[in-house]
Design brief:
Oligomer: single chain
Helix content: over 70%
């Protein structure tokens, strides 16, 4: 099992839980980075854990999309006032 894939999914889960409770959604950036690096390591070394890295990427990008939408919505709300 690729250790970086495990770290990536842990960071993604903490970011997903923290975005609504603690405001630590910024960990999603690190989850995406670690997910991409671990997928590359898995491809090169033949390790296991590809689904963990893919799940971390999906969660991380979902949080990033939510953050972008929220920021744009807030910006447009300020402009339209």
């Amino acid at each position: 099992m690729n250790k970086l894939a495990v770290v990536a999914i842990i960071m993604a889960v903490v970011a997903a839980a923290g975005i609504s409770f603690l405001g630590i959604g910024g960990l999603a950036v690190f989850a995406v980075g670690a997910g991409h690096v671990s997928r590359n390591q898995i491809r090169l070394r033949g390790d296991r854990g590809r689904w963990l890295a893919t799940a971390a990427l999906a969660i991380g990008y979902a949080i990033a999309t939510l953050a972008l939408y929220s920021s744009l919505r807030y910006a447009f709300a300020l402009v339209l006032e």
